[in-house]
Task: inverse folding
């Protein structure tokens, strides 16, 4: 079975257009098989975006594991910043490019296996991380983020209580100052700053 974190999903493409409201604004997104949450904007991503004070977001932003693009497109639509979006899934990359045009935002989208093709440092990294990749790769993503962040940068992420939110927070506190921005129906939004 192909997953949304495969680089080249071999399932049949079946694009569909979804509409969603985030903080009072309407967005349209093309989705497809083997991208995360293809039928609607997932509750975790919505909770993450509604927890971020967009007036604080500036400079260079990385949407890690962008999927079909809701995080990066929302941030670019609401903040004065430069947005890069990365994913390992080529189908997701193509959808993000299409959705950036659809929602009239200028962002930079490229393929990257974790941070392999990331060659700059960011003020903010924002992610709904792919928990199903397993703890080893998940921790490479979250702890490796600090090497792609500026000295005063921040990592925003969302994770479900049932996926180990509390133990993850404890582990993250080994190298980050971690603030819980929101708890909503089992989802935790963390803001992590390098110690």
Result:
């Amino acid at each position: 079975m192909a997953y949304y974190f495969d680089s080249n999903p071999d399932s049949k493409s079946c694009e569909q257009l979804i509409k969603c409201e985030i903080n009072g604004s309407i967005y349209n997104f093309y989705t497809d098989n083997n991208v995360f949450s293809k039928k609607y904007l997932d509750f975790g991503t919505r909770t993450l975006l509604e927890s971020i004070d967009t007036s604080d977001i500036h400079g260079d932003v990385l949407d890690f594991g962008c999927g079909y693009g809701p995080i990066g497109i929302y941030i670019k639509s609401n903040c004065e910043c430069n947005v890069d979006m990365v994913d390992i899934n080529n189908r997701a990359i193509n959808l993000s490019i299409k959705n950036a045009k659809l929602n009239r935002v200028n962002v930079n989208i490229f393929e990257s296996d974790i941070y392999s093709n990331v060659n700059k440092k960011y003020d903010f990294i924002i992610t709904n991380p792919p928990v199903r990749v397993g703890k080893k790769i998940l921790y490479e993503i979250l702890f490796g983020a600090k090497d792609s962040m500026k000295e005063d940068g921040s990592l925003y992420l969302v994770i479900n209580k049932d996926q180990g939110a509390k133990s993850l927070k404890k582990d993250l506190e080994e190298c980050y100052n971690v603030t819980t921005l929101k708890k909503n129906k089992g989802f935790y939004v963390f803001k992590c700053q390098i110690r």
